[in-house]
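thread from #wetlab-drylab

HS: before we spend reagent money on co-crystallization trials with calcium ion, can we at least see a predicted complex? here's what I'd submit
DV: go for it
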Amino acid sequence: MKRLLFVLALAAGLSALALSTAPATRVAHAQSGIDPNQWYQIVAHHSGLCLDVNGGGLNTGARLIQYTCHNGDNQRFRFEPMGNGYYRIRAGNSNLCIDQVNATYSYGGQFMQYTCHNGLNQQFDVISGQVGSGYYNQIRVQHSLLNMDVANASYSPGAYIIQYDPHGGINQQFELVPSSTTPCAGRDADGDGVVACYDCDDNDPDVQDCPPPEDPCNPIWLCQ
Ligand SMILES: [Ca+2]
């Protein structure tokens, strides 16, 4: 079965231009019940692997890959409404935003985590209902109107997530799986407005926290 899926995915990739009939659009599509307060794993349909911020740190520039699902904070994401039908995608390990690197228009451009801003290369249309049941979603970045795509329909952990022509292939389909636990980007136990990823002591609001991107857990920064 895996071999069959792989062949289908390859065929879909090779015939991308031929299959691309619907014009690209910036009209936000009907959403599939996304809860903006819920953290999700984003699972690639063809591989069953999870979208993952490589390395899981606080550093801007860390790339988005697929990796074996492990419930880490760097595999949990929140869809933050922008008020126009599009979403920014927050990374659970950093509270940074998923960003198309350098806002390119090229096939193959990668994604990273980066300081959140209002640019179209951080805004995504989550498109459902185009792939049969509507259970799987396409995720389209708004500056280029290209889809998130697992490069080369790879089954390997570590493969990059890239932007590519929307072609309906299963390597551009993703399942949003609600996470039962909240990553550090969603926790602020002491209510001081600093999420746990950056809080030196998330149980004490009087502790002065290090500004990002310094590692709040590194004692050389003398957070207190
Ligand atoms: Ca806090």
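DV: DSSP finds two helices and twelve strands in the chain.
HS: ok that's useful, forwarding to the group
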